[in-house]
Model the fold of this input.
Amino acid sequence: MLYLLTNDDGIDAPGIRALELFARQLGDVIVVAPDGPRSGFSHRATVEGSMGLKQRDAEHYACAGTPVDCVRVAIAHLGIKPDWVLSGINRGANLGVDLYMSGTAGAAREAAIQGIPAFAFSHYHRTQSSIDWEHAAESCHQVFQQFCQRDLPPTAFWNVNLPDPQDLKEASHRTMEVPPDPSSLKLEYIAHAEAVEYKSHYHHRPRGKDTDVQHCLEGATTVSCVKLFS
Done:
């Protein structure tokens, strides 16, 4: 089995190293990831001009494009034919409507469009929490093994969110398959002279009943089947 890995935090981020840690237990790995942070790039792709592509070694490529570019370049230019695309592990959750903004999810979505099954992995954490990436890798491995044999509809992908690190290590920790929360985010901006800055209310965002937002913020790992088309 061949696994294509990417992310939106950049090729040197600890999350993708954790992802590679468990992926190598499953099969062969090729990493094609952005050369720096590309969070919030959604499904943006580079269609004008060139972008750098640096081969670091036989299994690692740093791309100056977006997460979607990384998947496209890996398949169409490098000729990689992965059995799975794994995106993440993102530092921060990608829950509910975040799916429309997330570069982590964008890479998995592009894989689904290309007909390749994919997982997007993210890790929620409170501001004061420190992520144990080795434990996160083990948790993602367990989720992958649990869901990789499930029937995945065409043009769909699995979106996984680990809870706050303290909740993840609790003996009562659960993994739940739930739908993404469609609730809109609370929007607030702080004025700075002639500029405005978005103020996040992530932990206090609306929580639809029995959705990924509710259960992840209450301590469960959530798994959602995200369908691109009805």
